[in-house]
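BUG: 3D viewer hangs when loading the predicted structure for this chain

Environment: internal workstation, default settings.
Expected: structure renders.
Actual: progress bar stalls at 90%.

Input used:
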Amino acid sequence: MLWANFLHLYQPPDQKKYIMDSVVNESYRAVVSILKDNPHARITMSIIGTLLERLDCDAYRDVIDGLREVSSRGQIEFTAGTMFHPFLPKIPDSEIFRQINLNNDVQQYYFKSAYQPHGFYSPEAGYSYRIAEIAHSLGYAWTIVDEIAYSGFLSPRGYDFGHTPGFYSGGLDLQQIVGTVSGKRGKSHPERKYVDYTKLYSIKGLHGFLVHFRERVISDALASGQITSPEQFLNVLKPEMRKDRYLLTGTDGEAYGHHQKGLDHVLGQLYWRKALETITISELPEYFPVSEEVEPIPSTWGTSEDEVRGKNYYARWHHTDNEIHDKQWALTDLAIHAVTGKGGERKKTSDVARRMLDEALYSCHYWWASARPWWSIELIERGARALADVVAYAEGYKGGIREVEKKKVSRGKAAEALRLYQDVVFTAFDWLRTEKVWDLSHLHK
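Structure tokens produced before the viewer hung:
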């Protein structure tokens, strides 16, 4: 078994300073230190451009320098990505290209020649064929998606989760399926198609453009804190380790030490013991054949089997039955049109409004409005205000949506932005008052 470990580093552009301090000290510096101490260890990493700017601004240049150093030694393969972490399946092509180009400029500024991306990562592993087409058109060789994109099903495979009682991952309740109480191993359904990790896949119609499938169950076991020691990790993998296959895990980089205390030490011990040979994602074709063309399903890293069946592929960012999401995306479309015009061409708006829009497209505030189970009215309001301020500024109200409200503007895009902003916030409060948030969060396993 070869291990290709993918880490995605991201913080929203308006992240609070004290949280940044914690993330840097608990996770980012730890990951850099682990790689420096284990020169044989190899990973693939996505780090968004705005985070690099923030690390520089907040005097954490040592993290940037450390990442560049270990990458120059061949230990980190950087992927291409986006500047401000927008949810790509929901925004126009012109905005996708812009986010990718902005990100490339920043990456090259900080990482110099160490930034040579072969692959592309779409935030939240948000996949659509259109995104793959764009990545392919820009010269990238592959993208990474969740394994559910292969057939709409997830598999626990032969892993032994006997020591992770109650573990739940993306529609798979392993306490029932794997039988953790008795220590039984997972069982796959023979009538379903699962990803075969002894071979590689290309996307039909894109002339050799590869798609790599993140293995959900193991990735979630790491990200959720179910793995607490290197011994446990290796015991879970043991039934599969002797096979001529690869393990492709993908998690937030912040999982190592910040989200999950101690997981950085587990990672360091695994590398120090050389328990698994590690490779980058771009090295996979050197070991495994590309032998199947596929048409991946629209999906994200969190899409469940039920959501695929219901064609509700992007539920955490735009659920088919979430009126807050509907209003958020109506406000998003309005903000994009206020800056670019209906045809997608640049209007005579200031560079300030353009930059405001770039930042306001970040994916977090849609996620926190899902209530399945994640919810934060503070972050919902913050995101809606950022989008409304874009419209107000583009329409000449330099004081943002607050100025529009004070002046009692009743017509035009600015007035529409104020109405949508208020609808988002008031609906969110209604959900709290009527306990809809409680009901939805408890329906979500």
